[in-house]
Amino acid sequence: MRTELSRRLGMECALFGFTPFPAVAAAISRAGGLGVLGAVRYRDPGELARDLDWLDAHTDGRPYGLDVVMPAASAAGAAGVTEADVEAMIPAGHRRFVAETLARHGVPPLPEGERSRWRITGWLEDVARTQLDVAFEHRLALVANALGPPPADVIDRAHRHGTLVAALAGSARHARRHAGAGVDIVVAQGYEAGGHTGEIATMVLTPEVVRAVDPLPVLAAGGIGSGEQVAAALALGAQGVWLGSVWLTTEEAALRSRALTAKLLAAGSGDTVRSRALTGKPARQLRTAWTDAWDDPAGPGPLPMPLQGLLVAEALTRIQEYEAEALLGTPVGQVVGTMTAVRPVRAVVDDLTRGFERAVARLGRMAGDP
């Protein structure tokens, strides 16, 4: 399962694994792929520096990457706008709606003095830039931007550092724009994927993006959870796959909530929904009473990014803290239906590799038939 891109990065197999957990990222890299740590949850650059130091020490010299969120435009306006400035834009009616939803499900407040753990501020450009200041002090092989190409000066800085730049795209039009901005890799993220997605399925999107940005390498993302699906992605012209959801139920992820782990293991492929309830942009996640409340036409509706994420931050921490089962969810793709057991990262990678080999052998036999 090696391609020109994986060889360039010193990988044993063309598996790029996005995860918010440093232990998972390290395990992916040690298993021969490339672990990509999500930076969006880090409020304190010191915490990110600590975890990148840990990755340096626990990846056995293998490559790893960082995923940031730097939107081209947002409700926050120009760079330099602070978190407090954005908080002030949140309407009082939306705050009441959050409070009423939590009260209806009996979710207690946080203990006095405890702050929100789920505080996504990384999509503010100033925060993301601070994260990159920290990241470029480490041996970063890849920096990916979840919302398109990062600013030109960030791409230039990454290239000076010897770091490749990837950008996620949900259409061929977006992919061409990313290529024109100077990125090195385009991630074709289909509708099936967890988190922010577009409207086009991976099977259709991948070859469209491959043709649109040739000769840039393309990674396929969305609806990929088996080695057979990896083989299909490479057959469509991708030089690797970008996997996120499959790592959520690994031993290394060690999800804090047993109830959430149980929901993931029990969920079927039809138990997710694309909703703006989490961040303000359409993101695939488990369908819950929380997503239903925000998607209800009778409600106020989600705010644009980044207002929605700041609005719901404390509420989501409370939901997780008290394991409010009806409201408890997480971003996850449609492959959740195949995630039926908690396993080590190495076992997931081994299964992907074996499934890929089976698929290639089967196609080889077909190709050899008279």
Instruction: Please identify which CATH superfamily of the largest domain we are dealing with.
Output: Aldolase class I
Give the termini distance in whole angstroms.
Answer: 27 Å
Helix tally? 14
Shape: globular
SSE succession: HEHEHEHHHEHEHEEHEHEHEEHHH
The largest β sheet comes out as:
8 strands, parallel, barrel
Strand order, main sheet: write it out: 1-2-3-4-5-6-8-9
The CATH class of the largest domain is Alpha Beta
Mean pLDDT: 92
- CATH architecture tag of the largest domain: Alpha-Beta Barrel
| Overall SS class | alpha/beta
Overall number of domains: 2
- The portion of residues forming beta strands comes to 5-15%
At the fold tier of CATH, the topology name of the largest domain is TIM Barrel
How many strand elements? 11
Q: Cα-atom Rg, whole angstroms?
A: 20 Å
- The stretches of 5 or more residues where confidence is low (pLDDT under 50) are 73-78
Protein name: Nitronate monooxygenase family protein
Keywords: Flavoprotein, FMN, Monooxygenase, Oxidoreductase
Pfam families: NMO (PF03060)
GO molecular function: monooxygenase activity
